[in-house]
Design brief:
- The complex is a heterodimer of chains A (111) and B (112).
- With 111 residues, chain A is mainly beta.
- Chain A is built from no helices and 11 strands.
- In chain A, the strands form 2 sheets. In chain A, strands 2, 4, 5, 6, 9, 10 and 11 form a 7-stranded mixed sheet that branches. Chain A has a 4-stranded antiparallel sheet with strand order 1-3-8-7, with no helix packed on it.
- Chain A starts with a strand and ends with a strand.
- The chains are: A mainly beta (111), B mainly beta (112).
- Chains A and B meet through strand 4, strand 5, strand 9 and strand 10 of A and strand 4 of B.
Chain lengths: 111, 112
Amino acid sequence: DVKVTQSSRYLVKRTGEKVFLECVQDMDHENMFWYRQDPGLGLRLIYFSYDVKMKEKGDIPEGYSVSREKKERFSLILESASTNQTSMYLCASSKYDGELFFGEGSRLTVL
Amino acid sequence: DAKTTQPPSMDCAEGRAANLPCNHSTISGNEYVYWYRQIHSQGPQYIIHGLKNNETNEMASLIITEDRKSSTLILPHATLRDTAVYYCIVRVPDFGNEKLTFGTGTRLTIIP
């Protein structure tokens, strides 16, 4: 089975801290995605990547950056966390023409 | 990618068929319709997808209208475990341009 693993299920950080959310997939998928999910707003795309070192902005990239140095790993970076970035973050991966596989999510709280 | 419209919530009695509609009136000819669901506290899970023909798998059936402007996901015998948020998206595999937007979905509640 495809597995998408997010490094932490729950994180608590302070305002201004640098935060790294890691995502690893084990099926050699080309595409990887980061979403955030907030009540009433559904899933919103932050960034996606279609190849190593390639990245594209999604709908809400402000305040975030990403890194994809290896095909299996896609990292989401909050350079200076703010309270409005408290959310559930979901990573997904897919083959070029296949369905998305999601991780279990990382719930980030910024105090 | 075309946008989709879904009702925010629906109820269905346990054991009955659950029919979840999705409107995608601006879909283009090479865009597929995908359905996912998200059970509380888990990541979304793929259910089914189709281009223009109706599709069926072990989880559900997908009915796409002839003009492709809308579709219906059918869970034939709903159980309590089908209570979830269901997302309909449209997608064309386009290398480097997979900007997939999910929206808010339909919250389906199965009533015992």
